Amino acid sequence: MDKLKVKRKAELTVVGKMFLVLNSILVIIGFSIKNYLFIIPGLINFIIITASLLGYFSFEKIPEIQLSLSKDFIRNRSFLAVALTIRNTSNKIVSYKIKLNFTYHLIIIDSADTKVIKLRPMEEKKIGWYLLAIRRGNANVGPIEVSLGLFQQLFKNTLTYEHSLDIKVLPHKPKVFIPWKTKKDLLMQLVNQFAQRVKGQGTEFYGLRDYLPGDEMKHIDWRATAKHDKLITREYEDEKQLHFLIFLDLGSTMFGPKFDYALSSVVELCTLIRGTNHDLAVIAYSNIVERFVVPQVGIQELKLMLNLYDLEAIGVQSNFIEAVKFVKTQNLHHSIAIIFSDLDGDLTKKLEGINTLKAMGSRIIFVNFSTTAFNLLASKETLSADAPNMFYKELLEHVFPSLVKDEYKKRELKVRNLLRPVEGDIIEVNGYYDNVIFALYRLMKKYSPRQRIILEAKVR
Amino acid sequence: MTRIIDAEFTQSWVTKYSYSFKAKLLAFIHFLVGFLAFLLVIIQSISSGNLIIFVIWLVITIILILSDKINELKVSIKGNSTFMLLTIIGTIFSLPLATVNSLFFIEKLGRIKLIIYQVIIGSLIALRLIISLFYEFSFGSGVSFLKAKNQLTKDQFLRYKETLLKTEFEFSEQENFTFSYYFVEFIRNLIVPTAIVSVVIVIGVAYALLIYFIIPPDALKEFLVGPALIIIALLYSILLLTLNSFIVKESNKTKTVSTKDSSLKSEEKKSENQGY
After folding, report:
1. Inter-chain CB proximity A151 and B137 less than 8 Å
2. Which residues 160-219 of chain B have a CB within 8 Å of chain A?
3. ipTM of the assembly?
4. Contact B10 A379 (CB under 8 A)
5. pTM for this one?
């Protein structure tokens, strides 16, 4: 048998005390001026307050309860069932008012959080609630409040069972399913692509060969070309081991569903990279570096994932420069830096950080989680719901989103211009039906030999 | 709530309030009763030719209409305290301005018409209070909750429920208590307190009469019963407050209670479904 701590609260509320004082004044005035206008409500009020205080004696014996959940962990936007078994241990028929408390990660569906239940002596019933997970994190279901008596607003007569169950709410279930093999192929493509591009010790000179369409211009050996009267290109050894640095922005602009999606994308990419022999480190930063995670193999890897799921966006503006400085002190040069952030807020710090990363010889991919695809802006309906008139409604539905999109394009161009000289890239994840793997795939397509010829032709 | 809103969420779910038609009707009756009480005061002040009292109560009625309009379905005892306060303020202003025919004139000397007005208005004020308490008792849990908006979400939720029922994790659907059940329960809970208050009043009156028979015969009965009831009312209020402090002291002791066998939980966990 489990033992539960039960806290009982039985006292007149502030409203109740005020009501009693006001009632005394009513009765005194009523009897003083012999006015029934006051005497009648005064006497009725006395009856009501007496009834509310008598409610205390109704909890003759404390009912037994048992709380259980349908799952131990759930994904965001999925359902959870909560069951409560309650047993009336007294010898009377009792009507209990039961309130289920839970953290902000969950929201109730289809019914109120308070239920009234009538139990005969020694009768047991199992009642339940359906909840929807709306926020990622460590949620709590409980404690349970059982109240008895009619007038809880006047006289609080409740039993609080100090019992709560923990449940982990994981990020959204991905809307798109990409087979593992496809993901792996993509990663290989990505690694090959980057191995040629990341400057550093791994790009050792291997030999010379004939120029092939798609080869980079800068790798053409002009001396050998002049000698042989045909285009000769330099070939390098493949990068043996790449260093992936994943930056995750925890700043205030990332708050809400956007951050959750960014986090699950980070976890997805981490899992994929961990399947190879390449190094990986995750830097979660706000105005400082909040967490630096270097995943281990085996069970440790699982721990890392759960560790990552505990991350929350912080209500301060992020400072990418700090994160880059940290990387510099750790001597993590010549890496593939994948930045999971957005184009909101102050861009200067992000641009400055990118500049420093550039100087460290890193290959940069900026993954932009567009605010227009997540959060409030994505829903025109919600935006215009509070509009005071048709003019504002029109403005919020049509003009405002397009203005935001224009601003976004400007900002995207700024980052793109900065990344172009160092062959950095910006990719965008547009909503739940997009995916970071898709975005990388789109990027790889850009670097396909055919596309490169077109691009180089355009440059010329 | 704002933080969680995104396109997907707003397309699938909508926030609803569990106010039924009956709750709306009761809230309207609650307003109507209060309005009627003040209207009667206004009508009486017109018929008695008390223009200033008429103006005072007209202002009070307008305040009542506005406050009830703002609160709408949030019928509560707290709101009713404002109503009582308005009544007291109105009376305090009316008392010095009352003429012989006014409802607020102290020396009525057996004017039945005025007493009937007072009783009706007093009863309406009490009725409004009872309605607000009954409203809180039966619709107090009328909080917001989510409801599926589109067919896909509805189907998903339905499928989840069905899947859950196939496992051992099932529970009975909430029984819906009828309006009459709440009413009977409400009245049943008021029987004992009514008896207690009646006994207190009887004791007060008996005490006054006892003094009336003891003191010289030329003393007027009505001058004794009134003060005696005031003292009794004060004593009763003090008694209620003392009872409250006793209850607070008693209830502060934390207790432990045994729950059902914990194996229940592990059994349920085994039957976790992989649903949505």
Report:
1. yes
2. 160-161, 164, 167, 169-172, 174-175, 177, 185-186, 189-190, 192-194, 196-197, 200-201
3. 0.77
4. yes
5. 0.68
